[in-house]
Automatic annotation (TrEMBL):
One of its GO terms (cellular component) is plasma membrane. This is Glycosyltransferases involved in cell wall biogenesis. It comes from human gut metagenome. SUPFAM superfamilies: Nucleotide-diphospho-sugar transferases (SSF53448). GO terms for molecular function: transferase activity. Keywords: Transferase. Signal peptide: none annotated. InterPro entries: Glyco_trans_2-like, Glycosyltransferase_2, Nucleotide-diphossugar_trans. The keyword Ubl conjugation does not apply. Residues 4-162 form the Glycosyltransferase 2-like domain. CDD domains: DPM1_like_bac.
Length: 193
């Protein structure tokens, strides 16, 4: 099984080597425990620092590292989408380069996918500890207002850190050919195939 880690980066020159070290440690652990192979895809979102240089250096040192580079800043979602298009894995995880999404959670998240009938394992923040009180208040108000206006519940604390199954059910369904590499896979996050 191949696991693709998608890491959108904007001015993450200093964080990338630390992220790589931790991700490589977890990958080695999961090779033994799950028989998993890894690829790490850094998506440089038009960074102004040395992010692209670091991505190239990591690629030169480890063939499991790949990178995509944008000519300008398109935003995190575009970076995730580009990473999804480039990913070759049976499972795809999206993580932030600054380690606020700890790679150490990847084995437990994969276990949830492997043992349950799920196509996505997502994380959410359960506390706003350490956040300035004004920011916490605005966040709570945002979620309260948006959920009153919408039929779809937006979960407070939901993160981009998630594992997605690139299911053979999608790959082999003639109506869904190509969808497994598109944004449509990411939209529902609660569906079972």
């Amino acid at each position: 099984m191949l696991i693709s880690l998608i890491v959108p980066c904007y001015n993450e020159e200093e964080a990338m080597p630390l992220f790589y070290q931790e991700a490589a440690r977890v990958a080695a652990q999961m090779e033994k425990s799950h028989g998993a192979e890894f690829e790490i895809i850094f998506v440089d979102d038009g960074s102004k620092d040395g992010t692209l240089r670091v991505a190239r250096e990591l690629h030169d040192a480890d063939p499991r590292v790949r990178y995509v580079s944008f000519s300008r800043n398109f935003g995190k979602e575009a970076g995730i989408y580009a990473g999804l298009k480039a990913a070759k894995g049976d499972y795809v995880a999206t993580l932030d380069a600054d380690l606020q999404d700890p790679p150490a959670l990847l084995p437990d998240m994969l276990d949830a996918l492997l043992t349950g009938d799920y196509d996505c394992a997502a994380t959410r923040r359960t506390t706003r500890e350490g956040e300035p009180p004004v920011r916490s208040w605005f966040a709570r108000m945002f979620y309260r207002i948006i959920n009153k206006m919408s039929d779809t519940e937006i979960v407070d604390g939901a993160r981009d850190f998630r594992y997605i199954t690139v299911s053979n059910k999608i790959r082999t369904n003639p109506l869904c050919i190509g969808i497994y590499r598109s944004k449509a896979v990411c939209e529902p996050f609660v569906t079972k195939l």
